[in-house]
Amino acid sequence: MNMEVIQSRYGLDRTIEKIGSNRLRVMGESQFQRTAQNDEGEITMFDFEGGPCLSVGGEIYFQKIKWKIEKIEPSQSKHDGLSECVLTVIPNY
């Protein structure tokens, strides 16, 4: 598996892991997260405490590639204080 670590603005680690050809998991320690959804109930934004703030149509850098976020799926972590989400992405050359 390919994985990279970035830091929140508070210095907390966020891991980005490729879990499929077009899927990335972003997770890290976060006491809370904020989400937004559209009228159809689909999650359009996921914001970790201290970042990153991810949004559908936005971009994330991973493996020196800029990826466009097409879908966000929050995941229930098995650990207290750990937040995670799965992104469906496409390369945005």
Describe what you observe in this structure.
- It is a single chain.
- This protein is mostly beta strands and 93 residues long.
- Helices cover 0% and strands 63% of the residues.
- It has strands spanning 3-7, 13-20, 23-29, 33-37, 43-48, 53-55, 59-62, 65-75, 82-91.
- The strands form 2 sheets. Strands 1-2-3-9-8-7 form a 6-stranded antiparallel beta sheet, with no helix packed on it. Strands 4-5-6 form a 3-stranded antiparallel beta sheet, with no helix packed on it.
- The model has no long low-confidence stretch (mean pLDDT 93).
* Terminal-residue CA separation: 23 Å
User: What is the beta-strand fraction?
Assistant: over 45%
Which stretches of 5+ consecutive residues score pLDDT under 50?
none
Whole-angstrom Rg: 12 Å
Structural class, by secondary structure, is mainly beta
Written as H for each helix and E for each strand, in order along the chain, the element string is EEEEEEEEE
Number of strands: 9
| Mean pLDDT over the residues | 93
Strand order in space, largest sheet: 1-2-3-9-8-7
From the spread of the alpha carbons, the general shape counts as globular
Q: Which sheet architecture does the biggest sheet show?
A: 6 strands, antiparallel
Helical content class: under 10%
Number of helical segments? 0
